[in-house]
Structure formats: structure tokens, C-alpha cells
Design a protein that fits this description.
two-stranded antiparallel ribbon, 389 residues, 10 strands, Rossmann fold, 3 domains, alpha/beta
Amino acid sequence: MATIGIICEYNPYHLGHANQIARIREQFGEDCTIVCLMSGSFVQRGEPAVFDRSLRAKAALLCGANLVLEMPVTASLSSAEGFAQKGVGILSSLCDYLCFGTETADADALVSTAQALLDPRFPSALKDALKTGVSFPAARVQALEVMGTAGNLLNRPNDILAVEYTKAILQQSSTMKIYPIRRPGDYHAQTPDPDNPSASAIRRCILDGADFLSYIPKAAHPCFQNAPVHTLGAGEKAILYRLRTMENEEFEALPYGSEGLWRRLMHACREEGGLEEILTAAKTKRYTRSRLNRMVMCAFLKIDQKSLDAPAPYCRILAFDDRGQRVLNCCKESSMLRPLGWQPDSDYGVLENRCNSLYGLFCRDDIPKANHAKSQRVIHYPTLEKGPQ
């Protein structure tokens, strides 16, 4: 029986995610086990997750996942490369395959591009490309083309992450095999496609108060209907307080602040008004907006470069069914998996508790108690109790 891993955010869980799980079961059989490694309170875009982690984990479990784990926050707020490296590191000991959506779903092309990025000639070619003043993503494409490798897989968001997953598997000599699935639809679409909605479009519906449940599997409707919504805007003043009271040394220690970007952000924070004005003032064509967003969120959460780089000593178990429990039982002795409610005595534990407490400040309506996360417990459903997808 195969075990298939998915690295995800489920922000929120929608019909496209349900389709991925259905495709996995078609390929590997109904008795396969699906393990989801999901971002928790904060996501890779440098924003709070729109719904609480427990609701998103419960939705995944009700819609076909067997085990849902929480990606450590220092992995969730990493670049695409760090996100993939840390995710693969966690799932490699649990899974036989890693499944992900891509625009092309060409496994051979993904491997070729990943191998080119690991070529000893690549760092020099990248350095030369960056000297031309183009953004980092554009420089990577340019460097690959100079080396004689097509860089088209680094132009689209899902392909970029797919390449990073593949590269991480190669670097770590992981035994996991890749299982790419073509992801139809437009990743950046502002209006949800009925069959292949983008999470961005669904979040826009949620924030605008429009209907979004028609793009969510029916089994997950109770999880999200009338659920508290979290937005970056709701926590803007809390972020601004932190940014306006930071010392120079704190800005310098931030992740993603190389080549003087930390100084640009620092000056913008001390001159501009709202968060959007700060980000606009600090932005240059060389750096992506998502990099700046992550940088600001790390500042708010007090995550410096050292903390981001340090390996997380554990990740949380959020939800499981009977089949997922068998995976947990098999790795019980040596696993880094820990349940909700378990209180660690470590630097990462302090960081994790701080992040979970601050997440409530992004709630659009009522602010939950500061210790809300400590009352959450692992969700368990016997396999037969799952509803229709």
C-alpha cells in the first residue's frame, strides 16, 4: 500500500484540492494513504491563513486525507526553495511519493530543470545574470538559458514550486518519487473557475463577503461556513506598531534583507504611513513582493535569519483517521511528530507559541483569547465517518 505526501496550504481547501486527492486514489488505489503537510497559521505569501489551521485540517480529513501535519512556521515563511527543502525533509521518512500540481506535469522536464539548478556552473551564471539588474526569478531563467537549458518551467508559479520539490528530493537523496499532476486553471485568476478555482480567487470572495462555498467540497462546508476570517488588513496596526519600534539591528537581522533591502524597509517604516505604502516604497524590480511580505511578517513575529534557518525540532499532528494512525504507529519511536497540546521546552517552542498567539490579532471580527491555540486538540475521525466529497 503506497503512502503519498502532499505539501500544501489549503488556504482554503477547495474543489481543486479534492480533485488532486481523487486523482491520487485513481492512480494508487483506494487503499493508499495520503499524508498532507499543511502550513499552519501563516502561509508562504507572508500572510495569515484565512481560516484557522484546525478548520483547514478538519476539511482535508473529511474530504479524503488520512493524516494532516502542520508545516513548522519557519518552513511556511521560507522562500520557495526553503519551503520545498523543509517539506521534503519531513515527508521523506513517511511517504513513497510526493504529489503536487503543476502547469505542465512533465516529470522528465522537472528533473532536467532541477538537475540544471544543481549544476556547479549555475551559481556563476546566476551571479552574472543578477548583475544585469533583473529580478531573481528572471535571473534564474536567464542563467539556465546561458547554460543551454530551457528555463520555461521557472515562469509559472506551480511549476516553480514543482522544480523546487524535485530539486530537494535530489539534494536530500530522498527515496520519494515525484507524481506531478497537471493543474488546470489560472493561478492568478480574480474570479473563481467553477471546476478549477484558484485559492486567490476564493479568498477574494471570502473577503468581499461573496459566495465561496460553491467552490468548496460539500463535506467541508461545515468547517468554513460562518468561520472567523483572518486578514492581513485586520492586523495592520499591530504590524505597524512592531515595525515602528524596531531597532536598526533588528532590521539587519531579518531574513530576506540581503543587499541592503533591510535598510530600504527600515527607512520606509520610519517614513511611510500604512503597510501598503511601506511595501511600495521598499519594493524594487529586483525583489518580488512576496519576498517583502515574508520579510515584514518575520519582523512582526520576531523571526530573524538565525531562527528561520534553524531546523524545527518537531512538527505538529493536526488530524488523522484510522489509516493515518497506522502511519503514526509505524514511526512512533523515532518520529519528530508531536500532537497539539504537547508543550516543548525549546527556543522553537517559544517561537511557535508566540506565532500562534499573535495569529488571533488578524481575526477580522472578534479577537480570540491569547491562549486559544493551547486549547486546540488533534482531530480524529474513524475512516467510516467521513462524509461525501
